[in-house]
Amino acid sequence: MNDKHLSTQFDTELSAVSTRVMEMGGMVESQIRMAVHALSEFSEEAAAQVKEIETRVNLMEVEIDRELSSIIARRQPTARDLRLLVAISKTTANLERTGDEAVKIARMVKSIIGSGAARTLPASELHVAADLASGLLRKALDAFARLDANVAVSILKEDDLIDREFDGFVRKLITYMMEDPRTISASLDLLFVAKAIERIGDHAKNIAEFIIYVVKGADVRHASMEQIESVVR
Fold first, then answer.
1. Nearest residue to 94 via CA among 219, 16, 17, 199
2. Pick from 165, 143, 145: nearest CA to 232
3. Are the CB atoms for 159 and 135 separated by under 8 Å?
4. Mind listing the pLDDT tens digit for each residue in 83-119?
């Protein structure tokens, strides 16, 4: 079997596993949309659907990792191909954890509904952050599909917007609890929702860092923005 044939087979396997990552990403995006809908409408039905999707997401993570291990064992890739396989593994782990955050949102929504305080809480204040986080994950997946390091840098910058939304919401929620201490328990559930949304943004940021790792061969996880931009230029 000649080298060209081996290379073609390897490219086909890489393409197949990358497609699986996009499928997994699509399922996680569905989880987030359903979780945000559950929060907006305080819908127990939507919250339950988030949990149902989790089983499929977890199974896909295991299947992708198994396929990656098989590819590494059979092909013994080097340099950029190996970086891509490592990045795919880390990306699927971040997608699974993003799904966990969506499940956390759904769980908190059910708790808030059970408290009877659903309609009195400032949940609408979280819509901007939720939209930002969801959009950031979608952008990260698109950038990963194209291995676009420049878009990855823009994702790292945009994550700061979610962090600022989170900080602002926490301040508002503290004021709300001080004004009406009866809402403290339900408000804490809402605080966990806000933190889960922030973490979704963090996972999108992690995926962006892996894109730069694949394209540039540099680990920028703890680098400053100035250093990252220098690497990508």
1. 199
2. 143
3. no
4. 999 999 999 999 999 999 999 999 999 999 998 877 7
Alpha-carbon distance 49 to 131, whole Å? 19
Instruction: Tell me the three state secondary structure of residue 116.
Output: coil
Check residue 6 and give its pLDDT: 54
Can you tell me the distance from the alpha carbon of 227 to that of 180, in angstroms, rounded to the nearest whole number?
46
Nearest to 222, CA basis, from 130, 124, 93, 231: 231
Who's near 126: CB < 8 A, 6+ residues apart? 39, 169, 190, 193, 194, 197
Sequence-distant (≥ 6) Cβ neighbours of residue 198 within 8 angstroms: 129, 133, 162, 163, 166
- The arithmetic mean of pLDDT across residues 182-192, rounded, is 91
Domain span at residue 188? 3-232
* Count of structural domains, the chain: 1
Look at the block and give the residue holding tokens 């699986």.
20
Q: Kindly report, residue by residue over 133-184, the tens digit of the pLDDT.
A: 999 999 999 999 999 999 999 999 999 899 999 999 999 999 989 988 888 8
CB 92 within 8 A of CB 85: no
The CATH number that applies at residue 93 is 1.20.58.220
Predicted local confidence at residue 5, as pLDDT: 44
